[in-house]
C-alpha cells in the first residue's frame, strides 16, 4: 500500500489522494502537522529536503513533488481505474500541452491568489489586495482562452479527462470558494463553467475534497 506523507487538507496532498482514488490505488495517509512544523523535522527533510508535503513511500521507493507523484501513479497503473495519461504519442503530446496550460496559465495566477486570500489569513496576516487584483486581471484573459478551447472539446487535452484537468481541482476549488467575484470567473464563461462542474463533481474528488 502507498504511504502518503502529507497534511490531509493541503492542496498538493489532496492532488495525490485524488489520483489514488481515480486509479483505485489504496493508500495510507501519514499525517504531517504543518502547524507544528513537522515538515521541517530532520527525519522528514531527510526524504524531502525542501521540507514540503507530500511525499510517498511505495514499497521503499520514495518520491516527492505532487505533480511527479501524480504522473508516476498514472503511469504505473495505466490500465487500472481512470486512464489519466494517454499512451498514444499524439494524444500524450496533447496531454503535455494541457499540463503546461494548467501550470503556466492557471496555477501561476490562482495559487498566489489562494495564498493571499486563504493561507495568509490563517496565519494571522493581511492579504495584499492589490496583488490579488493584479493577479486576477492577468488571469481573466487566460480563462477566455480556456473557454475557447473548451468550446471545441470536452476537456483540455481532447474529449477524455486527463491528469491535466484534475490538476486544477485543489487550487481551483479554493479559488472558486472565495466568493462572487471569483466564482464568476468560471460561471460567466459557459464552456469553462460546464467543464468545471464536470471535473469538480467527480466521485474521486468529492472523496478527498475535504481531506485526503
Describe the structure.
- With 212 residues, the protein is an alpha+beta fold.
- The chain is built from ten helices and four strands.
- It has helices at residues 11-22, 42-45, 66-76, 89-122, 129-150, 163-166, 169-176, 180-187, 190-200, 203-208, and strands at 2-6, 27-31, 55-58, 61-64.
- It has a four-stranded mixed sheet with strand order 2-1-3-4, with helices on one face.
- The longest helix has 34 residues, at 89-122.
- The model has no long low-confidence stretch (mean pLDDT 97).
What is the topological layout?
Elements: E1 2-6, H1 11-22, E2 27-31, H2 42-45, E3 55-58, E4 61-64, H3 66-76, H4 89-122, H5 129-150, H6 163-166, H7 169-176, H8 180-187, H9 190-200, H10 203-208
Parallel strand pairs: 1-2
Antiparallel strand pairs: 1-3, 3-4
Mean pLDDT score: 97
Q: Trace the largest sheet across and list its strands.
A: 2-1-3-4
* Termini Cα gap: 15 Å
Oligomer: single chain
Largest sheet data: 4 strands, mixed
Helix and strand composition category:
alpha+beta
- Rounded radius of gyration (Å): 17 Å
Brief digest:
This protein is of the alpha+beta class and 212 residues long.
List keywords for this structure.
single chain; 212 residues; alpha+beta; 4-stranded mixed sheet; 57% helix; globular
Amino acid at each position: 500500500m502507498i504511504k502518503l506523507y502529507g497534511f490531509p487538507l493541503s492542496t498538493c496532498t489532496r492532488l495525490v489522494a485524488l489520483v489514488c482514488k481515480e486509479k483505485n490505488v489504496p493508500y495510507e495517509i501519514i499525517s504531517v502537522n504543518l502547524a507544528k512544523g513537522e515538515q521541517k523535522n530532520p527525519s522528514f527533510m531527510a526524504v524531502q529536503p525542501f521540507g514540503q508535503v507530500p511525499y510517498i513511500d511505495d514499497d521503499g521507493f520514495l518520491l516527492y513533488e505532487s505533480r511527479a507523484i501524480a504522473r508516476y501513479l498514472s503511469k504505473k497503473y495505466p490500465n487500472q481505474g481512470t486512464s489519466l495519461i494517454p499512451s498514444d504519442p499524439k494524444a500524450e503530446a496533447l496531454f503535455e500541452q494541457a499540463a503546461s496550460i494548467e501550470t503556466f496559465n492557471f496555477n501561476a495566477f490562482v495559487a498566489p491568489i489562494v495564498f493571499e486570500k486563504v493561507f495568509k489569513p490563517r496565519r494571522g496576516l493581511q492579504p495584499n489586495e492589490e496583488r490579488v487584483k493584479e493577479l486576477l486581471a492577468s488571469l481573466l484573459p487566460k480563462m477566455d482562452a480556456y473557454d475557447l478551447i473548451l468550446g471545441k472539446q470536452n476537456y483540455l487535452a481532447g474529449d477524455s479527462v486527463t491528469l491535466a484537468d484534475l490538476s486544477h481541482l485543489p487550487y481551483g476549488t479554493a479559488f472558486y470558494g472565495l466568493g462572487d467575484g471569483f466564482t464568476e470567473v468560471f460561471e460567466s464563461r459557459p464552456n469553462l463553467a460546464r467543464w468545471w462542474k464536470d471535473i469538480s463533481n467527480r466521485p474521486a474528488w468529492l472523496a478527498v475534497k475535504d481531506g485526503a
